[in-house]
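Deliverable D2.4 — example input (C-alpha cells):
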C-alpha cells in the first residue's frame, strides 16, 4: 500500500474501508455496549467513580522490583501486581531506549513509560485521566500495566533486534555516546 502511486482515489478508498470496518466493529460491539449503557444509571458508577475509590490498586515503588523477580514481596510495602517481564527482556527494553531508531520501537517504549507512570501510586497523570469523560468510570491504576507490559514486550523485541543486528561493541558505543 505504501509503494502504490498516491492519489485522492486511493486515499478515499482507504478511508471508506476504514469507515466500513469501524461500522461493522461498532455493530458487533453494540451487543455488549447497549446493556452496559442501559444499566449504568442504576449502578454505583452512575456519575463516574470518585478518585478515592478509583485508586484501589496502584503500583507502589517497590513493586518495580517485580519486573525482575516474579515472587518478590514485602508485606505492607508492595501491592502484588503482576509486573514480571523477565531479566533479559527488561535489559532489552532498557537497551531499546538507547539504540532503537525506528518510530514504532520508540512509540512502544514511550507507551510503556506512559502506562507505568499512569499506574504508579499518587500519579497526577491518573488523577487527570480520571477527570476526563469515559475514563471517569475506570478503576485500579495498576490495570494500565496490561497495556504497558504488552508495549514493553514489543519494545524489548525492537531492542533485541537492534542488539543482534549491531552487535555488542556497536551497542555499547551507542549507549556511551548517549551519555
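Example output (designed residues):
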Amino acid at each position: 500500500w505504501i509503494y502504490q502511486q498516491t492519489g485522492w482515489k486511493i486515499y478515499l478508498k482507504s478511508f471508506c474501508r476504514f469507515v466500513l470496518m469501524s461500522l461493522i466493529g461498532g455493530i458487533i460491539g453494540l451487543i455488549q455496549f447497549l446493556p452496559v449503557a442501559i444499566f449504568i444509571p442504576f449502578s454505583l458508577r452512575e456519575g463516574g467513580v470518585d478518585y478515592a475509590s478509583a485508586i484501589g490498586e496502584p503500583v507502589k515503588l517497590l513493586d518495580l522490583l517485580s519486573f525482575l523477580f516474579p515472587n518478590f514481596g514485602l508485606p505492607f510495602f508492595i501491592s502484588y501486581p503482576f509486573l514480571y517481564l523477565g531479566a533479559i527482556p527488561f535489559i532489552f527494553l532498557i537497551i531499546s531506549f538507547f539504540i532503537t531508531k525506528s518510530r514504532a520501537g520508540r512509540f512502544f517504549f514511550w507507551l510503556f513509560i506512559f502506562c507505568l507512570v499512569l499506574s504508579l501510586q499518587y500519579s497526577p497523570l491518573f488523577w487527570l485521566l480520571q477527570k476526563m469523560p469515559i475514563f471517569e468510570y475506570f478503576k485500579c491504576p495498576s490495570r494500565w500495566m496490561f497495556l504497558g507490559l504488552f508495549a514493553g514486550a514489543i519494545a524489548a523485541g525492537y531492542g533485541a533486534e537492534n542488539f543482534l543486528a549491531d552487535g555488542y561493541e556497536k551497542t555499547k558505543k551507542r549507549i556511551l555516546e548517549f551519555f
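The chain has a mean pLDDT of 81.
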